[in-house]
Amino acid sequence: MIVIIDYNVGNLKSVVGAFKRIGLEAVVSRDEKVIKEAKGIVLPGVGTFPTAMKNLEKYHLVDILTERKEAGIPILGICLGMQILFEKGYEVKETKGLGFIPGSVRYMDIDEKIPHMGWNQLHITNHQPILKYVHENDDAYFVHSYMAHCKDENLVAYTDYGTTKVTALVQNKNVIGCQFHPEKSGMVGHKILLAFKEMVEC
């Protein structure tokens, strides 16, 4: 069983549906007892960095997520859910993140149209099990105005948006983050979630 964290930021229905399609039971919850039983955790997210962190604190989820991370439970952050895995975000105001991945999230101050929205190719820099079924130049679906800045050792894949190298997928041990939406990325997203399923079930 995986738990999709319910903290009032995210399209939970589409994420639940995506996991159902790969045959993995997904429960939407913010209950500590349920989260402790999870073999995998998903942090979805649509909205702003400060709101996301405020809600995690409001529902007393920061400590339990940290505990589960330290216990080695696979955690997958999606879009905003990926961004709050970092140490800091600068959306609206400087806000402390969960700190599961070194780095920060900043506005995409570039010449291209913002938000970055649409299908873009993935370029793999660090072959990890989460991309075991994904190939170089496979397309994923992005919708975001802020991007993560991280160490090369944590960068798993990036995409090019104009002349900007945009962080697309990151990992720090058992913590993984997708800036794109795997639940909206067709077969490529399906393959990524299937690989996550295998990490959870191993």
Question: What this model shows, in words?
Answer:
It is a single chain. The chain is α/β, with parallel strands linked by helices and 202 residues long. It has a single domain (2-201), classed as Rossmann fold (3-Layer(aba) Sandwich). 27% of the residues lie in helices and 34% in strands. The chain has six helices and 14 strands. The longest helix has 16 residues, at 186-201. The radius of gyration is 15 Å and the shape is globular. It starts with a strand and ends with a helix.
β-strand amount: 25-35%
Overall morphology: globular
In the sheet with the most strands, the strands line up as 2-1-3-4-14-13-12-9
User: What name is given to the CATH topology?
Assistant: Rossmann fold
Radius of gyration: 15 Å
How many beta-strand runs? 14
Helix-strand topology string: EHEHEHHEHEEEEEEEEEEH
| Helix count from the secondary structure assignment | 6
Distance between the termini: 12 Å
Structural class: alpha/beta
**CATH-level-2 architecture:** 3-Layer(aba) Sandwich
Instruction: Please tell me the total number of domains.
Output: 1
Mean pLDDT value: 95
Task: List its traits.
single chain; alpha/beta; Rossmann fold; eight-stranded mixed beta sheet; four-stranded mixed beta sheet; 6 helices; amino-acid biosynthesis; EC 3.5.1.2; cytoplasm; imidazoleglycerol-phosphate synthase activity; hydrolase
